[in-house]
Structures are given as structure tokens and as C-alpha cells.
Amino acid sequence: MNIQQNIFEEAKSLIRKRYPNGLGGAAAMYSKNSNTYTSVVPEIINNSTSLCIETGSILDAHKHQDIITHAICVVRDDENSDFKILTPYGTCQERLLYWDKSN
Fold first, then answer.
1. Which helix (H) or strand (E) holds 68?
2. How many Å apart are CA 97 and CA 25, to the nearest integer?
3. Boundaries of domain holding 15
4. What total of structural domains would you count in the chain?
5. CB 7 within 8 A of CB 72
6. CA distances, 55 to each of 48, 66, 78, 94 (Å)
7. Molecular function (GO) terms listed (predicted)?
8. Residue 75 and residue 84 in contact, taking contact as beta carbons nearer than 8 Å
9. Global pTM value
10. What is the pLDDT of residues 63-99, one digit of tens each?
11. 92: exposed, middle or buried (C-beta count within 10 Å: 0-12, 13-18, 19+)?
């Protein structure tokens, strides 16, 4: 299994475990040091303080002084829906660029 397929499966597995019913989403990222980091969006009361699904994975890699090389964000509408792949947008693209010191 290649890296992209592996992190896709990791994200789907986390969604099934963390959100057995209803809407769910997870990020999975692979790193330069061959680690996989996963995360979910934190539940919040005030939407203006929300974070992206990818944030936890990015910060976990940063904490371990690791560099993300592959990233995926996976969501589904409910437990009967197909999984959808989303690409990191604006803020998470900036986070990935900022903490990617490999280039």
C-alpha cells in the first residue's frame, strides 16, 4: 500500500472509531520520519475559535520536530455516506508551509 492510500485508510479508521454515527471528519499526515499523525476537529461552542481538522496533526508533528510530507483530510456526511477527500485550504496550507523546513 502506498503512503497516500495508507493515510486515507488511517483517516477513515479514525472517523469510524471517533464518529460511529453521523457526520465525521479526520486528518491523517505522513512525515519525513515515517510517522503517521491523525487528528479530528475540536468541538467548540464559539465558531470564531474553531480550528481545522488538520491542526492537531500539524502540531503533533511540530511537537516531535518532524516534517509533514503527505496530508489528507477525509469527511463523510453520515455513517452511510461515501468518504470525501478535502485538500488543506488557506490557513492549513500556510501552517504546512511554515512548519515545513525541508525546502
1. strand 68-76
2. 22
3. 3-101
4. 1
5. yes
6. 15, 14, 22, 11
7. catalytic activity
8. yes
9. 0.87
10. 999 999 999 999 999 999 999 999 777 787 888 777 6
11. buried
**CA atoms of 39 and 20, how far apart (whole Å):** 16
Write the pLDDT tens digit of every residue in 28-52. Answer: 999 999 999 999 988 888 877 778 8
- Angle CA 11–78–12, to nearest 5: 10
- Specify the length of the chain in residues: 103
Measured distance CA(50)–CA(79) in Å, rounded? 24
| C-beta of residue 77 within 8 angstroms of C-beta of residue 21 | no
Q: CA-CA distance, 4 to 77, in Å (whole number)?
A: 22
The CATH number for 97's domain is: 3.40.140.10
All three cell numbers of 82, joined, read 461515501
Edge to edge, what strands does the sheet with 84-86 contain? 36-39, 24-31, 68-76, 84-86
